[in-house]
Amino acid sequence: MNPDDYREAIRILESAILSTDLAIYFKKRNDFFKLVEKGEHTWDNEEKKGLLRGMLMTACDVSAIAKPWRVQQKVAELVFSEFFEQGDLEREKLKEEPMAMMDRKKKDELPKMQVGFIDGICMPVYKMFAELWPDLKPLASGTQLNRDNWQALSEGKEPNVWK
Predict the structure, then answer these.
(1) CA pair distance 147, 66, nearest whole angstrom
(2) Lowest CB count within 10 Å: 42, 49, 88, 117, which one?
(3) Which residue range(s) make up the domain with 136?
(4) 159 lies in some domain
């Protein structure tokens, strides 16, 4: 690669990696949703390409939520285990109360937190991609099935493990 192409490749990679930050997702998602709702099907300019790439990175980053229930449930448990360890460190070393999702004392709220995560982040982006490209509907439908299972757990009911 020549130096200019290399710099551009690095810029694109950096942007893609930063797009996995949910703060970036929330800043950009409304612009993406508006384009999809208008029926945008050409992603040929750099701004639109960057927006699309960022939303795809978010969709990939949270894709465990669309996997079969037992896989998705295990991934959620592993992620929350890591969050709880970080929360424990914040409580122990910094003498600060961690945010709810990192607070081991609130582990019983995991199903409710998962429903909020799905409703606030996952379903909106997967619905937009399903609208844009119908072949991606399984991501939205798998996420909905998992949402239903987390909702059942939050209500003290059994999840439908066959979904």
Answers:
(1) 9
(2) 42
(3) 3-154
(4) no
pLDDT in tens, 3-47: 999 999 999 999 999 998 989 999 999 999 999 999 888 888 999
Kindly state the average pLDDT of the residues 108-112: 91
Question: Given this model, what pLDDT does residue 42 score?
Answer: 87
- Longest alpha-carbon distance in the chain: 59
Instruction: Give the side-chain half-sphere CA count within 13 A for 10.
Output: 7
Task: Provide the domain count of the chain.
Answer: 1
Cα separation, 153 vs 47, in Å, equals: 41
H helix runs in the chain, sequence order? 3-18, 22-37, 46-61, 69-93, 110-117, 123-132, 137-154
pTM of the model: 0.85
Examine residue 163 and state whether it is found in any structural domain, yes or no.
no
